């Protein structure tokens, strides 16, 4: 069952058909947080900004990048941004631990996290990770907890591997032989970077056969500060951004790099091509059933004691 926080038809028409009206009423300044440095995962947001879709919806949007990987949630909770981004597992764990987060939409509705190694190296199968060094860069441990669960399904426990904090120099650490594999990597980014460095990537999907499918990136807000009008207008504009990209990925790319010419790299271009098919074309939709399945998984694997009811943290879901 899908839950959709649908802006009203009147709002949709006002934004799409009468942008001048929205402009005439004045723009509301809104800060939007992302989960990492700007990259192709954020394409719909950047395209909506660069093409003026937010302004046509009455929003003066600025994008805020986190200083640390955990700041994407902190910025939402302390009110620095009205809407942010996070992965579904961490979001649900934060909520189970008492956080006031709400899930207001979906950016990428499938997992991206993976275990990455080099083809031809010592790791041929997941079982070969036993006794190896696995690099990570994420300062919060949700992804590593999921990795441990996936490995446990193969009979491998935490003592069977050595976790190495490689900070943000992940691919270099793998190429230099400091680690045998990486986790906390996105399968639409780091494998491409490895390939550009002349190595052949070998990717293991962490969730395969071990856990329910989850959304890699969802839009989040603080439910004590949430402004429904802002959320609804934001989602309408982002949906226009997604449609523009899907309709013409090349033109979308040109708009994306206009935001910052430093984004115009071969790595980002190839990642863009890999990412475009992954965007949710209905960003105001939250997959209620997927959240319910993952909540059950979190409790069963003792990552949380209990999960609140879905209607307490999925925006627009009725009691």
UniProtKB/TrEMBL annotation:
Alphabetically ordered keywords of this record: Signal
Segments forming a coiled coil: none
Domain SsuA/THI5-like: 39-251
Nuclease among keywords: no
UniProt keyword Signal present: yes
Endpoints of the signal sequence: 1-24
Biological-process GO terms, alphabetical: thiamine biosynthetic process
Name of the protein: ABC transporter substrate-binding protein
Species of the source: Hoeflea prorocentri
